[in-house]
Design goal:
- The chain is an alpha/beta fold.
- The chain folds into two domains: about 15-135 and about 290-305, Aspartate/ornithine carbamoyltransferase (Rossmann fold, 3-Layer(aba) Sandwich), CATH 3.40.50.1370; about 140-290, Aspartate/ornithine carbamoyltransferase (Rossmann fold, 3-Layer(aba) Sandwich).
- About 35% of the residues lie in helices and about 15% in strands.
- The protein has helices at about 15-30, 60-70, 90-100, 115-120, 140-150, 170-180, 240-245, 250, 275-280, 285-305, and strands at about 50-55, 75-80, 105-110, 125-130, 160-165, 185-190, 205, 220, 260.
- Helix 2 (about 60-70) links the parallel strand 1 and strand 2.
- Helix 1 (about 15-30) crosses helix 10 (about 285-305), helix 2 (about 60-70) crosses helix 10 (about 285-305) and helix 5 (about 140-150) crosses helix 10 (about 285-305).
- The radius of gyration is 19 Å and the shape is globular.
- The model has no long low-confidence stretch (mean pLDDT about 95).
- Bound molecules: phosphoric acid mono(formamide)ester.
- Phosphoric acid mono(formamide)ester binds next to helix 2.
- Phosphoric acid mono(formamide)ester binds near residues 57, 60, 264 and 266.
Amino acid sequence: MSSWKRKDLTGLDELDADEITFLLDTARAFKGVGKRSLKKVPALRGKTLVNFFVEPSTRTRTSFEIAAMRLSADVVNISATASSLQKGETLKDTALNLQALQADIIVLRHSSPGSSRFLAERLESSIINAGDGAHEHPTQGLLDIFTIREKFGRIEGLNVAIVGDILFSRVARSNIFGLLKLGAKVTLVGPSTLVPKSFEKLGVRVIHRIDDVLAEADVVNLLRIQHERQRKEYFPGLGEYVALFGLTKARAAKLKPSCLIMHPGPINRGIEIDSDVADGAQSVILEQVTNGIAVRMAVLYSCAGGAGVPA
Ligand code: CP
């Protein structure tokens, strides 16, 4: 197993395959902690983590908090509305003040692409990107890849289709970077306005008919339409989107029985995914959420300088 030498995690684009594999292997070891009656190890005892979320979150914020508590770290949660960003303080000044308050790790969700890297280059505290605009969401990418690897035992050679609003999706970017580095074949599917051909330069295939990918896919990862980041209409209406790109029951019936149905959440039932399909036997949506704890434990532990997984 290679070692981890970074204090920050700002994106999967900057990691090589060995580093991604290291985090996945570390997460696999940490997953065992969640199966014990006493779900806690002393690995980050004495460390302080600040969850600083300037955008809404259910899964990511809660799972970073649970991950940090399982590692015995002290956790403080602050939000945009409860912070002095409201009074005109800059992000950098706010972060410097959190560092002055002896935060060892700052987990940041922010609407500006590059905000985590900006802080990582200016602070000694570890900075973990919990989603920066439409740029990256590296721990979501890792937990998606972890879930796929856990089910198939490998990533190399798998056909992964990512369907929906790719243009505005940080989850899509982190998945693309990570999956390609580990040897998956990635197909992006959606309307040409949200999945332009220019994505092909990343090394993926781009198609505009979901029916063309159903029979071959090992994984279908569905994305929500990111209305909050769109500044104009990218397709005529939700009805047309469902008709052309929704994973309906009829479409799900064309998938291989072994195909995983994934979604990073929050899901919009009846739009990108039929409600019964979301709850069906091939769906691993809630397993993804559970795996997020182990993946985030691995990221926090590794960036805080841990070596090997504590017993
Ligand atoms: N997948 C994800 O990032 O969900 P939250 O916005 O609830 O954190």
